[in-house]
Structures are given as C-alpha cells and as structure tokens.
Specification:
The chain is an all-alpha fold. The chain is built from 10 helices and 2 strands. A hairpin with a 6-residue loop joins strand 1 (2-4) and strand 2 (11-13).
C-alpha cells in the first residue's frame, strides 16, 4: 500500500508494522476479547489484559495509547466484521435474501452483537462523536434501504431511528438485566415492529 506524499508528490510507502508488534497487537486484542467475554468490559484493566497476553503493561500503552484506545480498536474491528456480514455475507443477513428477511436477520444479529459488546458500546455511546459515528451511519442507512425495499412508506429516517433505538446498548442491558428479558424475546419485539413498519 502506498500514499502520495513528500515534496515531489511521488508515492511514499506506508510504514510496515514489525512482526513482533503485529503479534503483540493480536495477542492483546484476543486477550481483551476473552476477558471481556468472561468478566465484562468494566471489570477488565490494562494490567489484566497485559498479563493475559503475556506482555508488559507498557506494551499495551505503546500500542493503543490508553484503555479507551484499546477498547475502541477492539470495537472497531468487530463492527467491521458485522458490517461485512450484512453487506456482503450469505443470506438471510446478506444480499441474497428478500429485504424483510434481511431486516429481521439484521435485528437479531445486532442484538447478539450488542449483548457481547454492551459494555464497550455503552462507553462509546457516552460520546456523541462515537455514538453517532460511522458504524451508526452505516446501520441507519442499511435499515432505511431495507425498509424502502420491503415496502415501508412514510418517514423512513424516523422508522430507522426507532428500530435502532431497540438495539441501543443501554436499552438492551436494561431489558436483559433489570427486566429479565431474553435475546429471543428482544428479537421477537424487533421483528414485530419491523413487520408492522413494512405492513406485514
């Protein structure tokens, strides 16, 4: 990969990540994912992640800058993976399924994602720049396109906002923890709203 730079405007090679740095990065992200899955994001410290990855704490800070930096990289990578799945993956989530089926599959898949990442998503949601950043925009556009293709009419932006509100990390956490709901029941609620919006 190259970028244009320098006074001459000629291509300049982007710096390559050293092999040991790349390995440490993967070790740290894998360790963070495992610890968060076991204990929740709030209970995981930089020391915990460094110990689990078998590296020094300084390595974590050099690689990610801060705990928040590491968490955002982790979230960004997983957001990218789910985007690839619903934009290019197999049906019913991907493009080769009818729009309503894709919409229903998206809701259930995103609920699973939110349950897994709810601590990170809640932290990110406290900052408007990250709450309404690129992942939100991609999801909103995706839902709006599917609503249109499935025959929904009216204010499609408001409808997409309403469906996304059912996937908000704090809302999902409240439903699961405080109200004793299950992912299946939240998925059923998503489906009910989505079908009504599409007149099905």
């Amino acid at each position: 990969m190259s970028v244009t730079g320098g006074a001459s405007g000629l291509p300049v090679s982007a710096p390559q990540e050293r092999g040991d740095a790349a390995r440490n990065r993967l070790l740290l992200l894998d360790a963070a994912r495992t610890l968060i899955a076991e204990h929740g994001a709030d209970a995981v410290s930089m020391d915990d992640i460094a110990t689990a990855a078998g590296v020094g704490k300084g390595t974590v800070f050099r690689r990610f800058g801060s705990r928040a930096g590491l968490m955002m990289v982790l979230l960004d990578e997983d957001e990218h993976a789910i985007q690839q799945a619903f934009l290019f993956g197999p049906p019913p989530l991907g493009p080769d399924a009818p729009p309503l089926e894709r919409l229903l599959a998206f809701g259930r898949e995103r609920l699973r994602f939110v349950q897994t990442h709810r601590g990170l998503l809640s932290e990110a949601g406290r900052n408007p720049e990250t709450r309404y950043g690129a992942p939100f925009t991609v999801q909103h556009t995706h839902i709006r396109v599917l609503l249109t293709a499935a025959g929904s009419t009216g204010d499609l932006d408001a409808q997409a906002d309403a469906l996304l509100a059912l996937l908000d990390a704090d809302y999902v956490t409240h439903q699961l923890v405080d109200r004793g709901r299950t992912l299946d029941s939240l998925g059923d609620a998503w489906e009910s709203v989505a079908r009504k919006l599409c007149g099905k």
